Amino acid sequence: MVNVGVMGTGYVGLVHGAVLSSYGFRVTCMDVDKQKIERLNQGISPIYEPGLEELLQSGLRAGNLVFTASAQQVVQTSDVLFIAVGTPAKEDGSADLSYVWDVVQQIGKHINGHKVIVSKSTMPVGTSRSIAMYLDGMLRGTPYRAHVASNPEFLRQGKAVSDSLSPSRVVIGAESDEAVQMLKKVYATHLEQDVPFLFTNRETAEMIKYASNSFLAVKISFINELALLSEKVGAKIQDIATGMGMDDRISPHFLQAGPGYGGSCFPKDTQAIVDVGRKNGEELYVVRAAIAANEKQKAKMVSKIEETLSFDGTLKGRTVAVWGLTFKPDTDDIRYSPSYEIIQGLLGRGAAVKVYCPQGMKQAKLYWTDLNGRIQYCGSEAECSQQADAIVLMTEWEQFRAANWEKIARGMRGNAFFDMRNMFAGDASVLQWFKYYPVGASEYGYPLREAQ
Ligand SMILES: NC(=O)c1ccc[n+]([C@@H]2O[C@H](COP(=O)([O-])OP(=O)(O)OC[C@H]3O[C@@H](n4cnc5c(N)ncnc54)[C@H](O)[C@@H]3O)[C@@H](O)[C@H]2O)c1
Ligand SMILES: O=c1ccn([C@@H]2O[C@H](COP(=O)(O)OP(=O)(O)O[C@H]3O[C@H](CO)[C@@H](O)[C@H](O)[C@H]3O)[C@@H](O)[C@H]2O)c(=O)[nH]1
Protein backbone atom coordinates (compact mmCIF):
# COMPACT_ATOMS: atom_id res chain seq x y z
CA MET A 1 0.00 0.00 0.00
CA VAL A 2 1.21 3.48 -0.87
CA ASN A 3 2.10 5.82 1.99
CA VAL A 4 0.85 9.31 1.22
CA GLY A 5 2.23 12.56 2.61
CA VAL A 6 0.54 15.95 2.38
CA MET A 7 2.40 19.17 3.14
CA GLY A 8 0.04 22.00 4.07
CA THR A 9 -3.31 21.39 5.75
CA GLY A 10 -5.43 24.19 4.26
CA TYR A 11 -8.59 23.46 2.26
CA VAL A 12 -6.81 21.46 -0.38
CA GLY A 13 -4.34 19.51 1.78
CA LEU A 14 -6.84 18.62 4.45
CA VAL A 15 -9.62 17.51 2.14
CA HIS A 16 -7.24 15.62 -0.14
CA GLY A 17 -5.57 13.87 2.80
CA ALA A 18 -8.87 12.99 4.46
CA VAL A 19 -10.38 11.63 1.23
CA LEU A 20 -7.30 9.50 0.47
CA SER A 21 -7.39 8.11 4.02
CA SER A 22 -11.05 7.16 3.44
CA TYR A 23 -9.83 5.08 0.47
CA GLY A 24 -7.58 3.14 2.87
CA PHE A 25 -4.23 4.86 2.22
CA ARG A 26 -2.06 5.65 5.20
CA VAL A 27 -1.88 9.43 5.07
CA THR A 28 0.42 11.75 7.01
CA CYS A 29 -0.53 15.43 6.88
CA MET A 30 2.02 18.01 7.94
CA ASP A 31 1.68 21.73 8.68
CA VAL A 32 3.96 24.35 10.22
CA ASP A 33 1.00 25.65 12.24
CA LYS A 34 1.39 23.62 15.46
CA GLN A 35 -1.91 24.78 16.95
CA LYS A 36 -3.72 23.58 13.85
CA ILE A 37 -2.01 20.19 14.13
CA GLU A 38 -2.98 19.89 17.80
CA ARG A 39 -6.63 20.57 17.00
CA LEU A 40 -6.57 18.23 14.02
CA ASN A 41 -5.24 15.46 16.24
CA GLN A 42 -8.30 16.02 18.43
CA GLY A 43 -10.51 15.61 15.36
CA ILE A 44 -11.40 19.31 15.16
CA SER A 45 -11.50 20.79 11.67
CA PRO A 46 -9.91 24.25 11.44
CA ILE A 47 -12.29 25.16 8.62
CA TYR A 48 -16.03 24.91 8.06
CA GLU A 49 -16.49 22.52 5.17
CA PRO A 50 -19.53 20.21 5.00
CA GLY A 51 -18.59 16.57 5.68
CA LEU A 52 -14.93 17.23 6.45
CA GLU A 53 -14.93 16.82 10.22
CA GLU A 54 -16.66 13.43 9.97
CA LEU A 55 -14.05 12.28 7.45
CA LEU A 56 -11.19 13.49 9.67
CA GLN A 57 -12.58 11.75 12.71
CA SER A 58 -13.10 8.46 10.92
CA GLY A 59 -9.52 8.61 9.54
CA LEU A 60 -8.17 9.26 13.03
CA ARG A 61 -10.27 6.43 14.50
CA ALA A 62 -9.12 4.01 11.79
CA GLY A 63 -5.52 5.03 12.51
CA ASN A 64 -4.68 5.77 8.87
CA LEU A 65 -4.71 9.56 9.16
CA VAL A 66 -1.84 11.15 11.05
CA PHE A 67 -1.17 14.84 11.68
CA THR A 68 2.29 16.13 12.43
CA ALA A 69 4.31 19.35 12.52
CA SER A 70 7.45 17.42 11.60
CA ALA A 71 8.66 17.81 8.01
CA GLN A 72 11.12 14.98 8.59
CA GLN A 73 8.32 12.60 9.59
CA VAL A 74 6.10 13.35 6.61
CA VAL A 75 8.96 13.17 4.11
CA GLN A 76 10.48 9.99 5.49
CA THR A 77 7.26 8.02 5.97
CA SER A 78 5.78 8.79 2.54
CA ASP A 79 6.26 7.36 -0.97
CA VAL A 80 4.36 10.22 -2.57
CA LEU A 81 4.31 13.79 -1.23
CA PHE A 82 1.62 16.28 -2.19
CA ILE A 83 2.52 19.96 -1.90
CA ALA A 84 -0.63 21.80 -0.81
CA VAL A 85 0.59 25.06 0.69
CA GLY A 86 -0.81 28.48 -0.22
CA THR A 87 0.36 30.47 -3.26
CA PRO A 88 -1.15 33.88 -2.45
CA ALA A 89 -0.83 36.99 -4.60
CA LYS A 90 2.04 39.38 -3.95
CA GLU A 91 1.55 43.15 -4.14
CA ASP A 92 2.39 43.12 -7.86
CA GLY A 93 -0.09 40.32 -8.60
CA SER A 94 2.53 37.60 -9.10
CA ALA A 95 2.20 34.36 -7.11
CA ASP A 96 4.11 34.21 -3.83
CA LEU A 97 5.93 30.88 -4.02
CA SER A 98 7.83 31.22 -0.74
CA TYR A 99 5.75 28.54 1.04
CA VAL A 100 6.25 26.17 -1.87
CA TRP A 101 10.02 26.63 -1.77
CA ASP A 102 10.06 26.16 2.03
CA VAL A 103 8.43 22.79 1.52
CA VAL A 104 10.72 21.82 -1.35
CA GLN A 105 13.75 22.58 0.79
CA GLN A 106 12.37 20.41 3.59
CA ILE A 107 11.84 17.58 1.12
CA GLY A 108 15.40 17.91 -0.19
CA LYS A 109 16.77 17.98 3.34
CA HIS A 110 14.97 14.92 4.69
CA ILE A 111 14.59 12.71 1.64
CA ASN A 112 15.50 9.09 2.38
CA GLY A 113 14.53 7.21 -0.78
CA HIS A 114 12.90 7.58 -4.21
CA LYS A 115 9.87 9.84 -3.94
CA VAL A 116 7.16 11.15 -6.18
CA ILE A 117 6.55 14.84 -5.45
CA VAL A 118 3.22 16.21 -6.64
CA SER A 119 2.20 19.85 -6.68
CA LYS A 120 -1.47 20.32 -5.84
CA SER A 121 -0.91 23.99 -5.11
CA THR A 122 -1.75 26.32 -7.99
CA MET A 123 1.64 27.38 -9.36
CA PRO A 124 2.71 29.48 -12.33
CA VAL A 125 3.78 27.61 -15.42
CA GLY A 126 7.33 26.32 -15.11
CA THR A 127 7.34 25.96 -11.31
CA SER A 128 7.15 22.14 -11.26
CA ARG A 129 10.07 21.94 -13.68
CA SER A 130 12.08 24.35 -11.49
CA ILE A 131 11.30 22.20 -8.43
CA ALA A 132 12.47 19.09 -10.32
CA MET A 133 15.72 20.79 -11.33
CA TYR A 134 16.31 22.05 -7.79
CA LEU A 135 15.74 18.61 -6.23
CA ASP A 136 17.88 16.91 -8.90
CA GLY A 137 20.68 19.27 -7.88
CA MET A 138 20.18 18.58 -4.19
CA LEU A 139 20.11 14.80 -4.72
CA ARG A 140 23.18 14.64 -6.93
CA GLY A 141 25.62 12.14 -5.44
CA THR A 142 22.86 10.30 -3.51
CA PRO A 143 21.07 7.13 -4.67
CA TYR A 144 17.70 8.92 -4.42
CA ARG A 145 15.45 10.38 -7.14
CA ALA A 146 12.56 12.83 -6.92
CA HIS A 147 9.94 12.46 -9.67
CA VAL A 148 8.05 15.74 -9.82
CA ALA A 149 4.51 15.99 -11.21
CA SER A 150 1.82 18.64 -11.38
CA ASN A 151 -1.69 17.59 -10.36
CA PRO A 152 -3.81 20.74 -10.02
CA GLU A 153 -6.83 20.76 -7.76
CA PHE A 154 -10.28 21.86 -8.97
CA LEU A 155 -12.39 21.51 -5.81
CA ARG A 156 -14.82 24.24 -4.84
CA GLN A 157 -15.08 25.46 -1.26
CA GLY A 158 -18.33 24.50 0.38
CA LYS A 159 -18.39 21.39 -1.82
CA ALA A 160 -14.78 20.35 -1.28
CA VAL A 161 -15.44 16.86 0.07
CA SER A 162 -17.97 15.85 -2.58
CA ASP A 163 -15.82 17.40 -5.33
CA SER A 164 -12.82 15.38 -4.13
CA LEU A 165 -14.81 12.16 -3.96
CA SER A 166 -16.23 12.75 -7.45
CA PRO A 167 -13.98 15.17 -9.31
CA SER A 168 -14.91 16.63 -12.70
CA ARG A 169 -11.51 15.44 -13.97
CA VAL A 170 -8.02 14.48 -12.82
CA VAL A 171 -5.23 16.32 -14.62
CA ILE A 172 -1.75 14.88 -14.32
CA GLY A 173 1.31 16.61 -15.70
CA ALA A 174 4.07 14.06 -15.40
CA GLU A 175 7.16 13.23 -17.39
CA SER A 176 8.34 10.00 -15.77
CA ASP A 177 6.77 6.57 -15.66
CA GLU A 178 7.34 6.40 -11.90
CA ALA A 179 5.20 9.51 -11.35
CA VAL A 180 2.43 8.32 -13.69
CA GLN A 181 2.28 4.84 -12.12
CA MET A 182 2.24 6.27 -8.59
CA LEU A 183 -0.60 8.68 -9.37
CA LYS A 184 -2.58 5.92 -11.05
CA LYS A 185 -2.33 3.98 -7.77
CA VAL A 186 -3.35 7.01 -5.70
CA TYR A 187 -6.32 7.70 -7.99
CA ALA A 188 -7.28 4.04 -8.57
CA THR A 189 -10.77 4.70 -7.20
CA HIS A 190 -11.36 7.53 -9.66
CA LEU A 191 -9.99 5.46 -12.53
CA GLU A 192 -12.47 2.72 -11.63
CA GLN A 193 -15.28 5.30 -11.42
CA ASP A 194 -14.52 6.46 -14.97
CA VAL A 195 -13.63 9.97 -13.87
CA PRO A 196 -12.04 11.63 -16.93
CA PHE A 197 -8.22 11.67 -16.76
CA LEU A 198 -5.85 13.86 -18.72
CA PHE A 199 -2.16 12.97 -18.83
CA THR A 200 0.05 15.70 -20.18
CA ASN A 201 3.29 17.54 -19.49
CA ARG A 202 3.87 19.64 -16.39
CA GLU A 203 3.60 23.05 -18.05
CA THR A 204 0.26 22.15 -19.61
CA ALA A 205 -1.16 20.88 -16.31
CA GLU A 206 -0.11 24.09 -14.60
CA MET A 207 -1.71 26.17 -17.35
CA ILE A 208 -4.96 24.17 -17.30
CA LYS A 209 -5.54 25.26 -13.71
CA TYR A 210 -5.06 28.98 -14.41
CA ALA A 211 -6.94 28.73 -17.70
CA SER A 212 -9.95 27.14 -15.97
CA ASN A 213 -10.16 29.69 -13.18
CA SER A 214 -9.59 32.65 -15.51
CA PHE A 215 -12.22 31.42 -17.93
CA LEU A 216 -14.79 31.12 -15.13
CA ALA A 217 -13.85 34.60 -13.89
CA VAL A 218 -14.32 35.95 -17.43
CA LYS A 219 -17.75 34.34 -17.59
CA ILE A 220 -18.81 35.97 -14.31
CA SER A 221 -17.47 39.39 -15.27
CA PHE A 222 -19.20 39.11 -18.64
CA ILE A 223 -22.61 38.46 -17.10
CA ASN A 224 -22.01 41.12 -14.43
CA GLU A 225 -21.35 43.79 -17.05
CA LEU A 226 -24.46 42.77 -18.94
CA ALA A 227 -26.36 42.94 -15.64
CA LEU A 228 -25.38 46.58 -15.24
CA LEU A 229 -26.53 47.29 -18.78
CA SER A 230 -29.77 45.35 -18.26
CA GLU A 231 -30.69 47.58 -15.32
CA LYS A 232 -30.53 50.56 -17.67
CA VAL A 233 -32.47 49.13 -20.60
CA GLY A 234 -35.25 47.21 -18.87
CA ALA A 235 -33.89 43.70 -19.54
CA LYS A 236 -33.72 40.91 -16.96
CA ILE A 237 -30.34 39.31 -16.43
CA GLN A 238 -31.59 35.99 -15.06
CA ASP A 239 -33.68 35.42 -18.14
CA ILE A 240 -30.73 36.46 -20.31
CA ALA A 241 -28.51 33.90 -18.54
CA THR A 242 -31.21 31.25 -18.93
CA GLY A 243 -31.62 32.04 -22.60
CA MET A 244 -27.88 31.99 -23.23
CA GLY A 245 -27.42 28.83 -21.20
CA MET A 246 -29.91 26.93 -23.36
CA ASP A 247 -27.09 26.79 -25.90
CA ASP A 248 -24.91 23.82 -24.89
CA ARG A 249 -21.88 25.65 -26.20
CA ILE A 250 -22.39 28.37 -23.59
CA SER A 251 -23.93 26.35 -20.69
CA PRO A 252 -25.93 28.00 -17.89
CA HIS A 253 -23.18 27.59 -15.28
CA PHE A 254 -21.25 30.55 -13.88
CA LEU A 255 -23.68 33.03 -15.34
CA GLN A 256 -25.16 34.19 -12.03
CA ALA A 257 -24.86 37.96 -11.84
CA GLY A 258 -23.80 39.24 -8.44
CA PRO A 259 -21.61 41.71 -6.57
CA GLY A 260 -18.39 40.41 -8.17
CA TYR A 261 -16.41 37.23 -7.65
CA GLY A 262 -14.24 36.71 -4.58
CA GLY A 263 -12.50 33.91 -2.71
CA SER A 264 -8.95 32.71 -2.35
CA CYS A 265 -8.64 31.59 -5.99
CA PHE A 266 -10.22 33.69 -8.77
CA PRO A 267 -8.81 37.08 -7.67
CA LYS A 268 -5.25 35.79 -7.20
CA ASP A 269 -5.18 33.33 -10.10
CA THR A 270 -6.42 35.87 -12.65
CA GLN A 271 -3.72 38.27 -11.51
CA ALA A 272 -1.07 35.54 -11.57
CA ILE A 273 -1.82 34.46 -15.15
CA VAL A 274 -1.75 38.09 -16.30
CA ASP A 275 1.65 38.37 -14.62
CA VAL A 276 2.89 35.19 -16.36
CA GLY A 277 1.63 36.59 -19.67
CA ARG A 278 3.43 39.86 -19.14
CA LYS A 279 6.69 38.15 -18.18
CA ASN A 280 6.46 36.17 -21.41
CA GLY A 281 5.63 39.16 -23.60
CA GLU A 282 1.91 38.32 -24.01
CA GLU A 283 -0.69 40.71 -22.64
CA LEU A 284 -3.80 38.75 -21.63
CA TYR A 285 -6.34 41.46 -22.47
CA VAL A 286 -9.43 39.34 -21.84
CA VAL A 287 -8.39 38.31 -18.33
CA ARG A 288 -7.29 41.86 -17.54
CA ALA A 289 -10.71 43.10 -18.57
CA ALA A 290 -12.39 40.51 -16.33
CA ILE A 291 -10.35 41.75 -13.36
CA ALA A 292 -11.22 45.38 -14.11
CA ALA A 293 -14.93 44.55 -14.57
CA ASN A 294 -14.91 42.75 -11.21
CA GLU A 295 -13.56 45.85 -9.47
CA LYS A 296 -16.13 47.98 -11.28
CA GLN A 297 -18.93 45.64 -10.20
CA LYS A 298 -18.16 46.03 -6.49
CA ALA A 299 -17.97 49.83 -6.82
CA LYS A 300 -21.25 49.92 -8.77
CA MET A 301 -23.03 47.99 -6.05
CA VAL A 302 -22.03 50.63 -3.49
CA SER A 303 -23.09 53.47 -5.83
CA LYS A 304 -26.45 51.81 -6.36
CA ILE A 305 -27.10 51.64 -2.62
CA GLU A 306 -25.92 55.22 -2.22
CA GLU A 307 -28.09 56.56 -5.04
CA THR A 308 -31.14 54.81 -3.60
CA LEU A 309 -30.69 55.66 0.06
CA SER A 310 -28.84 58.97 0.25
CA PHE A 311 -30.53 62.20 1.38
CA ASP A 312 -27.75 64.64 0.61
CA GLY A 313 -25.23 62.76 -1.45
CA THR A 314 -24.02 60.70 1.50
CA LEU A 315 -25.33 57.83 3.58
CA LYS A 316 -25.02 59.71 6.88
CA GLY A 317 -27.86 58.78 9.20
CA ARG A 318 -28.59 55.55 7.29
CA THR A 319 -28.19 52.10 8.78
CA VAL A 320 -27.47 49.19 6.47
CA ALA A 321 -27.82 45.52 7.45
CA VAL A 322 -25.34 43.35 5.55
CA TRP A 323 -26.30 39.67 5.36
CA GLY A 324 -23.37 37.40 4.54
CA LEU A 325 -19.64 38.03 4.87
CA THR A 326 -18.19 34.91 3.26
CA PHE A 327 -17.38 35.01 -0.46
CA LYS A 328 -19.92 32.24 -1.06
CA PRO A 329 -22.18 30.05 1.10
CA ASP A 330 -21.19 26.88 3.01
CA THR A 331 -17.72 28.09 3.90
CA ASP A 332 -16.30 30.27 6.68
CA ASP A 333 -13.73 31.71 4.25
CA ILE A 334 -13.82 35.49 3.89
CA ARG A 335 -10.71 35.86 1.71
CA TYR A 336 -11.30 38.50 -1.00
CA SER A 337 -15.00 38.48 -0.21
CA PRO A 338 -16.86 41.30 -2.02
CA SER A 339 -18.63 41.93 1.32
CA TYR A 340 -15.47 43.55 2.64
CA GLU A 341 -15.29 46.16 -0.09
CA ILE A 342 -19.01 46.84 -0.03
CA ILE A 343 -18.86 47.40 3.75
CA GLN A 344 -15.85 49.70 3.34
CA GLY A 345 -17.71 51.61 0.63
CA LEU A 346 -20.80 52.02 2.81
CA LEU A 347 -18.76 53.14 5.83
CA GLY A 348 -16.84 55.57 3.62
CA ARG A 349 -20.12 57.21 2.63
CA GLY A 350 -21.16 57.64 6.24
CA ALA A 351 -23.55 54.70 6.74
CA ALA A 352 -23.79 52.76 9.99
CA VAL A 353 -23.26 49.08 9.16
CA LYS A 354 -24.58 46.04 11.01
CA VAL A 355 -23.55 42.58 9.83
CA TYR A 356 -24.56 38.98 10.21
CA CYS A 357 -23.16 35.85 8.62
CA PRO A 358 -23.92 32.21 9.49
CA GLN A 359 -20.24 31.18 9.45
CA GLY A 360 -18.00 34.13 8.54
CA MET A 361 -18.08 36.35 11.63
CA LYS A 362 -15.27 34.67 13.55
CA GLN A 363 -12.88 35.02 10.62
CA ALA A 364 -14.03 38.57 9.92
CA LYS A 365 -13.34 39.66 13.51
CA LEU A 366 -9.92 38.03 13.27
CA TYR A 367 -8.80 39.28 9.84
CA TRP A 368 -10.84 42.41 9.04
CA THR A 369 -9.35 44.16 12.04
CA ASP A 370 -9.73 47.59 10.42
CA LEU A 371 -13.51 47.07 10.65
CA ASN A 372 -13.50 46.24 14.35
CA GLY A 373 -15.33 48.94 16.30
CA ARG A 374 -16.71 50.41 13.04
CA ILE A 375 -19.36 47.79 12.34
CA GLN A 376 -21.79 46.00 14.63
CA TYR A 377 -21.73 42.19 14.60
CA CYS A 378 -25.18 40.66 15.21
CA GLY A 379 -26.39 37.20 16.25
CA SER A 380 -29.03 36.69 13.55
CA GLU A 381 -30.40 38.21 10.36
CA ALA A 382 -33.39 39.52 12.34
CA GLU A 383 -31.19 41.27 14.92
CA CYS A 384 -29.03 42.68 12.14
CA SER A 385 -32.04 44.22 10.40
CA GLN A 386 -33.52 45.88 13.52
CA GLN A 387 -33.95 49.62 12.84
CA ALA A 388 -32.05 49.33 9.55
CA ASP A 389 -32.98 51.36 6.48
CA ALA A 390 -31.92 48.62 4.12
CA ILE A 391 -30.86 44.98 3.90
CA VAL A 392 -27.96 44.17 1.59
CA LEU A 393 -27.89 40.42 0.97
CA MET A 394 -24.31 39.63 -0.05
CA THR A 395 -24.08 35.83 0.24
CA GLU A 396 -26.80 33.37 -0.74
CA TRP A 397 -26.89 31.32 2.47
CA GLU A 398 -29.75 28.83 2.29
CA GLN A 399 -30.84 29.65 5.87
CA PHE A 400 -31.94 33.12 4.69
CA ARG A 401 -34.86 31.45 2.94
CA ALA A 402 -36.36 30.57 6.31
CA ALA A 403 -36.30 34.19 7.60
CA ASN A 404 -39.48 35.52 9.18
CA TRP A 405 -39.99 38.31 6.62
CA GLU A 406 -42.93 39.99 8.30
CA LYS A 407 -41.05 40.26 11.60
CA ILE A 408 -37.91 41.49 9.87
CA ALA A 409 -39.77 44.08 7.79
CA ARG A 410 -41.74 45.38 10.79
CA GLY A 411 -38.54 45.72 12.84
CA MET A 412 -36.85 47.88 10.19
CA ARG A 413 -36.87 51.66 9.86
CA GLY A 414 -36.86 51.57 6.06
CA ASN A 415 -37.85 48.87 3.58
CA ALA A 416 -35.12 48.66 0.92
CA PHE A 417 -33.80 45.19 0.10
CA PHE A 418 -30.72 44.97 -2.13
CA ASP A 419 -30.45 41.35 -3.19
CA MET A 420 -26.92 41.05 -4.60
CA ARG A 421 -27.53 37.38 -5.47
CA ASN A 422 -31.05 37.61 -6.88
CA MET A 423 -31.92 34.99 -4.30
CA PHE A 424 -35.48 36.21 -3.84
CA ALA A 425 -36.20 37.47 -7.34
CA GLY A 426 -39.83 36.75 -8.09
CA ASP A 427 -40.56 35.46 -4.58
CA ALA A 428 -43.83 37.17 -3.65
CA SER A 429 -43.59 36.09 0.00
CA VAL A 430 -40.50 38.29 0.34
CA LEU A 431 -41.26 40.99 -2.21
CA GLN A 432 -44.54 41.98 -0.54
CA TRP A 433 -42.62 43.40 2.41
CA PHE A 434 -39.82 45.34 0.70
CA LYS A 435 -38.82 47.70 -2.02
CA TYR A 436 -36.70 45.14 -3.83
CA TYR A 437 -33.51 45.89 -5.76
CA PRO A 438 -32.06 42.89 -7.57
CA VAL A 439 -28.88 42.80 -9.66
CA GLY A 440 -29.40 43.08 -13.38
CA ALA A 441 -33.01 44.16 -13.62
CA SER A 442 -34.64 47.51 -12.97
CA GLU A 443 -36.84 47.60 -9.91
CA TYR A 444 -39.91 47.60 -12.13
CA GLY A 445 -38.69 44.72 -14.22
CA TYR A 446 -39.55 42.23 -11.48
CA PRO A 447 -40.87 39.71 -10.69
CA LEU A 448 -38.74 37.84 -13.18
CA ARG A 449 -40.99 34.83 -13.03
CA GLU A 450 -44.65 35.06 -12.21
CA ALA A 451 -45.14 34.39 -8.48
CA GLN A 452 -46.85 31.04 -7.97
N1 LIG B 1 -8.98 26.80 -1.45
C1 LIG B 1 -9.40 26.22 -2.55
O1 LIG B 1 -10.59 26.06 -2.78
C2 LIG B 1 -8.42 25.73 -3.59
C3 LIG B 1 -8.88 24.92 -4.64
C4 LIG B 1 -7.97 24.50 -5.61
C5 LIG B 1 -6.64 24.86 -5.53
N2 LIG B 1 -6.23 25.65 -4.51
C6 LIG B 1 -4.80 25.97 -4.43
O2 LIG B 1 -4.22 25.08 -3.46
C7 LIG B 1 -3.21 25.75 -2.71
C8 LIG B 1 -3.56 25.71 -1.22
O3 LIG B 1 -4.73 26.46 -1.03
P1 LIG B 1 -5.53 26.42 0.35
O4 LIG B 1 -6.71 27.31 0.21
O5 LIG B 1 -5.71 25.01 0.76
O6 LIG B 1 -4.43 27.11 1.31
P2 LIG B 1 -4.56 27.64 2.78
O7 LIG B 1 -4.02 29.01 2.76
O8 LIG B 1 -5.94 27.40 3.30
O9 LIG B 1 -3.58 26.68 3.60
C9 LIG B 1 -2.22 26.57 3.38
C10 LIG B 1 -1.61 25.81 4.55
O10 LIG B 1 -0.22 25.62 4.29
C11 LIG B 1 0.47 25.73 5.53
N3 LIG B 1 1.90 25.95 5.31
C12 LIG B 1 2.56 27.10 5.00
N4 LIG B 1 3.89 26.87 4.89
C13 LIG B 1 4.08 25.55 5.13
C14 LIG B 1 5.21 24.70 5.16
N5 LIG B 1 6.43 25.19 4.91
N6 LIG B 1 5.04 23.40 5.45
C15 LIG B 1 3.80 22.91 5.69
N7 LIG B 1 2.69 23.66 5.69
C16 LIG B 1 2.83 24.96 5.41
C17 LIG B 1 -0.24 26.86 6.24
O11 LIG B 1 0.03 26.86 7.63
C18 LIG B 1 -1.70 26.54 5.90
O12 LIG B 1 -2.28 25.70 6.86
C19 LIG B 1 -3.12 27.15 -3.30
O13 LIG B 1 -2.14 27.16 -4.29
C20 LIG B 1 -4.49 27.36 -3.92
O14 LIG B 1 -4.45 28.27 -5.00
C21 LIG B 1 -7.08 26.08 -3.52
O1 LIG C 1 -22.23 32.29 -11.52
C1 LIG C 1 -21.46 32.61 -10.61
C2 LIG C 1 -20.57 31.68 -9.99
C3 LIG C 1 -19.72 32.12 -8.98
N1 LIG C 1 -19.74 33.43 -8.60
C4 LIG C 1 -18.79 33.90 -7.56
O2 LIG C 1 -17.48 33.47 -7.90
C5 LIG C 1 -16.71 33.24 -6.73
C6 LIG C 1 -16.06 31.87 -6.77
O3 LIG C 1 -17.05 30.87 -6.71
P1 LIG C 1 -16.73 29.31 -6.84
O4 LIG C 1 -16.02 29.08 -8.09
O5 LIG C 1 -17.97 28.57 -6.60
O6 LIG C 1 -15.79 29.12 -5.56
P2 LIG C 1 -14.32 28.60 -5.26
O7 LIG C 1 -14.48 27.70 -4.10
O8 LIG C 1 -13.43 29.79 -5.16
O9 LIG C 1 -13.87 27.69 -6.49
C7 LIG C 1 -13.13 28.18 -7.60
O10 LIG C 1 -11.75 28.28 -7.29
C8 LIG C 1 -11.16 27.03 -6.86
C9 LIG C 1 -9.74 27.34 -6.44
O11 LIG C 1 -8.86 27.38 -7.51
C10 LIG C 1 -11.25 26.02 -8.00
O12 LIG C 1 -10.64 24.81 -7.60
C11 LIG C 1 -12.71 25.82 -8.37
O13 LIG C 1 -12.80 24.92 -9.46
C12 LIG C 1 -13.31 27.18 -8.75
O14 LIG C 1 -14.71 27.05 -9.03
C13 LIG C 1 -17.66 33.43 -5.56
O15 LIG C 1 -17.48 34.71 -5.00
C14 LIG C 1 -19.04 33.29 -6.19
O16 LIG C 1 -20.04 34.00 -5.51
C15 LIG C 1 -20.61 34.35 -9.18
O17 LIG C 1 -20.63 35.52 -8.83
N2 LIG C 1 -21.45 33.90 -10.18
TrEMBL record:
Recorded hits in InterPro entries, A to Z, give: 6-PGluconate_DH-like_C_sf, NAD(P)-bd_dom_sf, UDP-Glc/GDP-Man, UDP-Glc/GDP-Man_DH_C, UDP-Glc/GDP-Man_DH_C_sf, UDP-Glc/GDP-Man_DH_dimer, UDP-Glc/GDP-Man_DH_N, UDPglc_DH_bac
Does the record carry Cell wall biogenesis/degradation as a key word? Answer: no
Q: Which reaction does it catalyse?
A: UDP-alpha-D-glucose + 2 NAD(+) + H2O = UDP-alpha-D-glucuronate + 2 NADH + 3 H(+)
Does the UniProt entry include the keyword Cell division? Answer: no
Task: Give the UniProt family note.
Answer: Belongs to the UDP-glucose/GDP-mannose dehydrogenase family.
NCBIfam families named in the record? NDP-sugDHase
Q: What is this protein called?
A: UDP-glucose 6-dehydrogenase
Q: Which organism is it from?
A: Paenibacillus glycanilyticus
